Structure formats: C-alpha cells, structure tokens
Amino acid sequence: MNGNLPRNFTEKMEKLLGDEFDSFMSSYDAPRVYGLRINRLKLGVEQWKKLSDMGEEVREIPWAPDGLYYKEGERPGKHPHYHAGLYYIQEPSAMAPVELLDVQPGQRVLDLCAAPGGKSTQIAGKLQGSGVLVTNDNARERTKALAKNIELAGVRNAVVLNDEPAAIAAVFPQWFDRILIDAPCSGEGMFRKDDSMIAEWEKHSIEKCSLMQRDIMQHAAAMLAPGGRMVYSTCTFSPEENEQQMAQFLAEHEDFFVEAISPQHGWRAGRADLAEGMAQLDEERLQSIQGTVRLWPHLIEGEGHYAAVLRRSGERTSIMEEEPAVAASVKRQSVQSAGGSLKREVVPSSGKRQEKKQDHRDERRAAKRQTRNDWANAGLERPANKKGAGSGRDGAAMNLTEEASPIELWNQYAEQFAINARSWPGRVVAFGSRVYIQPAELPSLDGLRVVRAGWYVGEAIRGRFEPSHPLAMGLKRDEAVRSVNWSSSDEQTIRYLKGETLFVDESELTVHAGAASKGYILVCTDGFPIGWGKYAAGMIKNELPAGWRWM
Prior knowledge:
The protein is α+β, with helices and mostly antiparallel strands.
C-alpha cells in the first residue's frame, strides 16, 4: 500500500523518523489489526469471553483493560451481542485517550468532538451510570451515529449536543472535571485503515486543521474546572497538529500544565524539539511536551495516535460557589426528581429550548406540532399511532385523559413496566412530546442545539405513552416487569433482530409478581436487552425500530 501514499507525506515522515523510516513504511504493508472494547455498563471481559464463541480467540490490548484484539475474518458486527450493546468495535490505538483521561464515577465529563461515539461509550463505562456525560459533535449528520451508539450502549446519564465549542462554553463555564478533545485532524494515522483518508489529506491542509484545533482547545479550556484534567488527541503524525499545538496552548494558558505520560506499551515520548521556536515558552514548559506520547504503527499493534494530558491548576469549588448562572440553574432544577411531578415542560420554540409553565392543553398542542420533526431530526422511525387503550397491569401503551402531559403519562406508565422506575436518579423533562431523564445536576440547555436531552425513555402520542428503544437498551433484565430471554444462537433471537413476529409459549416469559403476562416485554439475548416486543396470546409483536434491525 505504501506506494499509494502522498509523496509530501512520505518525505515529511522520512525527515521526522530518520533511521526508523523504513520500519514505519513497512507497517503499511503489514496485516491490519482489529479491536473491540467490552461495554462495562453491561458486563466484564471475562463474563463476555465465557458467553462468546470468540472468547478463546481474542487477545488483550495492553493499554485498554476492556480492549481485545480479534482475528481478521471475524464479524463481530453481525453477532447478536453487538445488537445487545455488549461491545464497541474500535481501532486499538483509539482506546488510549480515554484511558489517559482517568475518568472516575460521579464526575462531569465532556467529549467535545465525539462522533461516532466510541470514546463517549468508553467514558460512559467508566462513569458506571453516575455523574454527567455531555457528548457533542458540530456536524449534524455525524450526531445520528453518535446518538445511536450512546443508546446502543445503554447509557443513562448522557446528553448529546450538536453545537460549536463556543456555544457550549457559554453554558458550562469551568464546569467539567474531565474533557476529551479527540480533535478533527489530517488523519495520517488512518491511511492504512481507510484509503479514502489519503484523498482527504490532500484536500484538507494541515494548516487549516491546526487553526480549527487551536480554536477548539481555547473554548475547551474555559469549560475545565480548576484541578480538572483534559486530554488532547489526534490520529495524525503531523507535529503542527501535535507538539506544536501543545506549545501554542501552553504559551496562552499559564494555568495549565502537562501531566507526563509514561511511554509504556511501545509508546514513544513526545518531541519537544519539534515545537522549538513555535511559541514564547520557558525551557521547562517547552521540555514538558516530552511528557506527551506518540503511538507509532511500527512500534505498536495499532494505526497510530498522539495524546497529551493537561491539568488545570487550582481546586474545584463547591457547586454553589460556581459561576452564579450555572449554580442558580442547578439549584433551581435539582429539586425535581425522576419520580416527581415536573410541572415545567421543556418544549422547543423558535429553534431554542425554553422552559415554560403552560396549561396541559397548550402542552399537547405543542407536542403534536413538534412530534414529527423530533423523530425526523433524530434519524429514528416514528411509531405509528395506534387506536385502542391499555391500562393497568397489562403493560400496554396507556391511553389516559386528553389533559395528561408527556411527563404525567410517563409517571403513570413507568412502574407499569419498569420496576421502581420512579426511584431512578435524575430529573424528568419533556421536549415536545418526547420524555427524557437527565442527570439532576445538569444546568439548563437553553440556546444549545440538543440532539438528546438525556436518556430518551419514550413519547406521548395522543394521550398514550410509547416506550422507546433506548429505554429498553438502558434497562437490565431484572428491572423489567416482563422479559423473555434466548441464547444468542437461538433462531428466535435472529428472527427478532430481523423484525419478525415471534410465537412463544407463555411459560418462556419471566413476569414480575402481580403483573399480567400481556403487554410490553423486554426481549433479551444471553440475559441482555435487544429491544421491546408486545406479548398477547402466545405471540410477540416485534417493536424493534427498522433502523435497528439486522439487515
């Protein structure tokens, strides 16, 4: 393949690598390596190995505790475990930045350039359902994959945005404990994986990428709390986008410093000499750039990456000592729990989300106007409206009074299906007819372009409540009032994933004490949810959205 590489690139790499250049070039003709990362929100590595027929064939990725190499020819994306969100298919070196971020449960974390969502789901696994994950991409089309991957992984404490860093910084000043900037770059580390990146490299200049990265970092810095940790990473080898970017940032932010990374696993230290003369830095801060790391494809089993860990000096203040507007917003909103009766519906208005007190009829009119646009923008198939009513313990979509708001419908419906749903942590909000559960400490998102305002649990349609596929994926089997489980090799599992109607014996169902067997049922494989069905009289009607089916 190396004969297809741009001449400007190879000449630059020869100058950069010296005696290692031939070894570097040979890596482009070596077989590719493939990786997947186990989703800690669902299970651990050893548990997955016991479940999977790939379990004995995989190898550990040394820098990622949940990462595994798998053999070329395997098709993990076609396995039911993929549709259950048990793992994410990810290039091995791309797993390093989140490991360096050192995320702890309960923290507030921002993934600023997040699509398609691999690193966001890795962060979510480390948060273990606590804290806040804000994940963003400024390209509208890319947020569809981002939202879907967040939902597939069963993440319950994330918000998905589609906005510019400057707009997000205005809402979250010094708010985050951890920030990941996996920056858009010239993509030189992707040449072997994706030939089309070579053409992209020739079209998009390194200078243009460098300017964009600098702007992103400036706004990210404004969002990091004192004492917080920020990781900057790229999948390129260009010094202009790596060491020189660090030098420029350190020169402009005296309250930030490099936290040195140990160059283990075949990683190489960053090169301070590549940044000399690029910014007004004293010698100590310039040499600290050696504490960043390069992952070269001829030294590791991976495509290549660059990463730097930055720490902001100082200590975080308590929440009520933060920026007044943020603190007031949190104080105002945190009194509402997931099980409470939130009176303030959140509805879109003129492109902005505004909280308004409305009577229920106004809410329903706004919900009807917005429903179609909400589903189209989300890239999901809108459920058909259904006639008839269900109520009580049969678990069917509820048909309540015309005056009921989306949140009231959720509150009345939730424990008809999900055990103890009203005790889940968070705050229930509605955007139009759609209902979400947000982390309680999240400030108002007024003015931001919001793709997912939290864990999307369902939609109110003409006085009925329809549970969402993301709700199913975020549940554990033992949280469901009704469930059915088949092994990943069972034909019933495959038929369900293809969207077929299933015929089952009632004895196969697991039904919570006191509940009827008829109604919404959580369909599982090997004990993990893959979606909803509706059970009645020996038949499960398939509720898996078309965009999630095994095609």
